[in-house]
Request: fold
Amino acid sequence: MAILTLKDYIGKHTEAFKSEWSKELDDNCIILLNRLNDAFFFLKINSAKINSGWRPSDYNKMIGGAKNSLHITAQACDIADGQRTLSVVLTDKVLEKCNLWIEDPAYTKSWIHFQIVPPKSKRRKFIP
Reply:
């Protein structure tokens, strides 16, 4: 089964921004990765690739990320889904079981945005 790790999540920011990494970010990341790995195990997903994990605030600003992006607080993750196979199996039931929320895949091109914080709508699949 797919097992996403802290190294997968932090990615290219591991060395350059390690001074910004904190206990709070670590705690958030552990919760996020555990929930994602639970979902992938439940769905029998064999591999998953993180397109965008944690983003230091300066990097997030540089790439045009949302000002209050949950990527900055290690509470969100974008998983590649170019073939749209993952979006098909992510039902509200699965998301609820794993305590995850996603942006409606109709609004993302080739990825799925997962987060551990409920959106204002409280819907498991929400419009960004």
